[in-house]
Write a structure and sequence with these properties.
The structure is a homodimer. By secondary structure, chain A is α/β, with parallel strands linked by helices. Helix content of chain A is 41%, strand content 18%. In chain A, helix 3 links the parallel strand 2 and strand 3. Chain A is globular, with a radius of gyration of 17 Å. In chain A, 45% of the residues are buried. Chains A and B meet through helix 1 and helix 5 of A and helix 1 and helix 5 of B.
Chain lengths: 217, 217
């Protein structure tokens, strides 16, 4: 039975990759750059996006696609920044897929947009398996989650182009070894950029903003 | 295509439930009690299990089933407590299922065990969909994850018999409203027990230990 399930999954992933490639081409055609932000629940994706919008919205035209199993809590927060937000409710599914993103992109004015930011469903496993057509994968790992996570959830760290170590403002209250964490990430993915930040206090975020501005050039 | 996938999923879940019921009956036959502990990555499942073993192992014969996508980090920690530990590596899958638990139970000496503790894969979504045959579902939500999670991941909170609010030792450093969180959980699941604890400092754990001892009677 496990072999049967695997075949179904492979078919699904193959079809998903084709759709992701289509999304990617459409974005390139309209000179849009798309990032796919992934993390565990509560690691700080929405806070990072809010900070990024505040810092860059006068220079870069940003639109956000919000993925949640239920609720519009995050989309409501972000729409107050007066930028376009598309909410996707996955109705139970543990990740976004390329089809959902195709439908969301279709609702955006790509000619009026430079950067499309996807906030994926909070999950350190499934989102990494499903390409959506993004130019770069960004992941957050927050200090309270622990520095052993690259060993336990390797695929997410392998797929990430940038790993943001978030909530460094609470480092004194947790046993988290930033160097051990960085070594573990580099062991899985030598080219990943690693930026320690606090989306709450703003510490370290200038490095992230610079990376993003350079990536859009 | 989405309908096709849904059908496959329903077939899978039906077959899984049958196997879960079989596991449950086998445990009842041998007077074993099984709990299924679920949470996001890094919420404190392993720390809770370690504290529970230390406090109760002289009264209750405990065995642990460790579910991870990769690595044996948690199983290695727990095996130092000199109790039986079975490691399941899911090779990418985002949750344990009843079939994996059947194989793990088969390796335990049920006649020498009172309590089987399952540490599920760290994930606030998928594990809640797959019954494993446990007598009670236990979930942890840690303070750094935020008090809005019941709205965003409702199924997990609906399926839980006990919700442990972990890491209350860091409440001063996070915007987490325990009352708002408890109200949200009760709104989804009025019979869920909610225990604020710190698996690190031990605060609040006596209520959990008492609940568990009573449940085993």
């Amino acid at each position: 039975m496990s072999v049967k399930v695997l075949t179904i999954k492979e078919d699904l992933l193959g079809a998903n990759q084709e759709k992701a490639d289509k999304n990617h081409k459409l974005l390139d055609k309209h000179h849009n750059f798309m990032i796919n932000i992934m993390s565990s629940p509560g690691a700080g994706k929405t806070s990072l996006i809010m900070q990024t919008i505040k810092r860059l919205k006068d220079k870069i035209r940003i639109a956000v696609i919000e993925g949640d199993i239920a609720s519009t809590i995050d989309a409501d927060k972000i729409s107050k920044q007066d930028i376009p937000v598309i909410q996707i409710n996955t109705a139970g599914a543990c990740h976004l897929d390329a089809n959902m993103i195709e439908n969301a992109i279709d609702k955006l004015s790509l000619e009026q947009t430079d950067l499309v930011v996807i906030e994926n469903v909070g999950n350190l496993v499934c989102p990494a398996e499903f390409a959506v057509g993004a130019h770069k994968n960004i992941m957050l790992l927050s200090v309270p989650e622990g520095d052993d996570k690259p060993h336990k959830y390797p695929l997410m760290f392998t797929e990430a182009d940038v790993v943001l170590v978030n909530k460094i403002d609470v480092l004194p209250y947790f046993d988290f070894d930033v160097n051990a964490f960085s070594d573990a990430v580099s062991g899985l993915n030598p080219s990943a950029r690693i930026f320690p930040v606090s989306a709450k206090t703003g510490e370290g975020l200038e490095v992230w903003f610079s990376w993003l501005e350079d990536a859009l050039k």
